[in-house]
Each structure stands twice: as C-alpha cells, then as structure tokens.
C-alpha cells in the first residue's frame, strides 16, 4: 500500500487507508493501472476502486460474505443460475482486486473448474443440454495461459449444444498488455460465437493502451460489451457516466449493464441508492442515444435473470 501511495503521490495521512491483515482480501493493482491515477489526489476515482480503507471493516446490516448466495451452487466449477446459460468459474486469479468485488470472500479452492483440468466441469456441462452459452468467469479467465484457454475452447466446441462463449474480464482495462497475439488468434479462430464483456467504471481507465487492446479485440469480430458498477464517489454522477459511455463507444464497446452494488461485506461505503441510480439513467437518456445508455440492474439471489431498475 505504501508503494501505491508513493506512486500516486498521496500522503497516507490524507486518506483513511489500511493494510489488510493476513488472510484478508489483499491489495492488488498493476503498475500500468496505477499510472493512470491523478497524482496527489486522494479522491481519484481509480485509486478509490483499489485502495483498502478502514470503512471495509464496518459491520453494516444487509452486507454479507456471500451476497448472491453462490457458495455451494457450483458443480465441478459450473454455476447455473439462468436458463440457457452456465457460468464456469475458471480461476481464482485476477489482475486487480476491486474493493467492491462481490466474490471477495468466495471459496475458490472448492469451486474452480480448472482444478481437475476441465474434464469434470465439461462432464457437468455435457448434461446441461438446455445450455447454449458458456460464460467464462472467475476470478478473471484471461488469468489463464493461452494454451489453457485454447484447450478449454476446443473442449466447449466439442459439446455440440454450445454455440456461444462469453468472457467476463477486467484485463483489457487494467492490464491491456494481456491482449496479445495468442489470445487474439484464439478469439478469431474458434468456432463459437464470441462475446467479451469488459468491466470499466470510469473514463479515466481508458488510455491509449486500453484503446488499442479493445480495438484489436473488436477486429476479431468478438462482440464487445461493458458492465459497470454504480459506485459512490467514483461514477455516481451523470457527467462521469456520459463520459464513460462515449469513451467506450470510441473503442468499439457498447455499454451493457450498470449494476447496483452487490451487498458484499466490506463494500458498503460504495453503495448508491437505487433511486439515485434511476435519476442518473433518466438523465443519460436525455443526453445520449439509447444504445449508449446502459441498463440499470440489480442481481437478486434466486431470480431467473437480472432485475431491471427504473
């Protein structure tokens, strides 16, 4: 943490930061992402997404370790919550630890598909004949090597009833160097329809390297979408959300969802009321064409899909 504050030239006395204890959700942020933070600004919207604060230790009613009740749902790393889609928990690894992550307490050791080199997970998917789309999640699926990703895509192609694979990834935003020739080749040559949903919350996250990575992915004919989380002090005003939508579109990415915060323990200080989210979306509808206005949603355990708000 001291190193991060030195990079961004923020005095530790100006911010209520903490050092997570052993076993807690540690600080993790790539240097290239830290370089995009405004120097000397303790309220920088990129810094606040990754810097552990003492507010995380507050016990807030309604904020739980497993807000989406996912623990125990995974079968050999396969999570099926919605009709026609199944999510594969590919890895616990991520290039960045976002402090609002809804899986910050997830028991990955017991529920990662790659632990047994895919076969048990593929066996589970083989029995889900109603599933046509597999969502690669984690962690972050691009934490895997290109060889492992290629092997997995080949195995999914062989299932027969799957026609679409979707990557949920933060890599192109926080560590765009990961978008290398190997992953671009896999995206362009596999036989499945390919969708990549990136996660970007603020226009300042998009620099020339991010733009180049996203444009390279777009050239593989992969559908590019973005999902954000509505975060207090980071993107909870219309100007910032408008700038984000325009910046994404300039890179070939369409806004998809903006999520109300999942009530995970340790993230209550990021919470924005649903009423405020509705106001912001109404304002965006006055400023932007419809295809640049993300859908405001909440995920609720046990529901057949995302719950639209407003």
Outline type: globular
Strand content: 5-15%
Low-confidence stretches: none
Helix/strand-derived category reads alpha/beta
Distance separating the two termini: 39 Å
Helical percentage: 25-40%
Number of helices: 10
Would you count the extended β strands for me?
A: 9
Strand arrangement across the biggest beta sheet: 1-2-3-4-5-6-7-8-9
Characterize the main sheet: 9 strands, mixed
- Arithmetic mean of pLDDT: 93
Radius of gyration, rounded?
A: 19 Å
The string of secondary-structure elements, in order, is HHHEEHEHEHHEHEHEHEE
How would you explain this protein's 3D organization?
The structure is a single chain. The chain is α/β, with parallel strands linked by helices and 310 residues long. It is built from 10 helices and 9 strands. It has a 9-stranded mixed β-sheet with strand order 1-2-3-4-5-6-7-8-9. The chain is globular and about 55 Å long. The chain starts with a helix and ends with a strand. The model has no long low-confidence stretch (mean pLDDT 93).
Topology, pairings included?
Blueprint lengths: L1 H6 L23 H4 L12 H4 L27 E2 L5 E5 L29 H8 L6 E5 L8 H12 L6 E6 L1 H4 L6 H9 L3 E7 L8 H11 L4 E7 L8 H13 L3 E6 L14 H14 L7 E4 L8 E2 L2
Parallel strand pairs: 2-3, 3-4, 4-5, 5-6, 6-7, 7-8
Antiparallel strand pairs: 1-2, 8-9
